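Give me the fold.
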Amino acid sequence: MAKYKRILLKLGGEALAGPKGFGVDPEQAEQVAAKVKHIRDHEVEVAIVIGAGNLWRGIDGLKCGMDRATADHMGMLATVMNALALRDALERNGMTTRVQTAIEMKQIAEPYIRLRAVRHLEKGYVVVLGAGTGNPYFTTDTAGALRAVEINAEILIKATKVDAVYDSDPMTNPNARRFERLSYMDALNKRLKVLDATAITTCMDNDLPILVLNLWEDDSLEKAILGEKVGTLISQ
């Protein structure tokens, strides 16, 4: 039996990227959809916030002198492209899906309306939330935390390509220390970069636990929603 009734799954845009780490790979999107299907089979209500790192990184524009607000708005639009690709894969895997966006674009998605998103979840639909918060200067991590609180999710799951939170990059430091549990303040004070400070503070202020896990590790998502030990839990 699932431990959680409703979750917010935060994905990086890289989750949809192909082997080169750029663009949208339909086969990769299918794999993500299959993982979501496994947790939907446990009757868990799923909302998803997705980033855009596979299509656009605002920091690249900033290095060339681009205006920050312009770079961020471009990133928001890129998240909508990812949301549409993910919706297509989810629908092809038998899940009724709705895309809602913080920037209104009625021809392709619903505007984000909190109560409508909640009603979709109650009906068993997967809700994919695009365009971040709709405001520049805020990351999709912060959007994930904000939306999770708004829809009364029981946990924010950040699915990455690393199996937990470490005190340094385990890809480059074989002696990196792995954390199984952290308090919000530890995550902030240690500057672990698992999520930005605004996202962590939002979760802390609203007592929303954060679970960081490896999306591609076998059954990691399913184990998480069943309450098994996986990844790093950040809580009070």
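The chain is about 35% helix and 20% strand.
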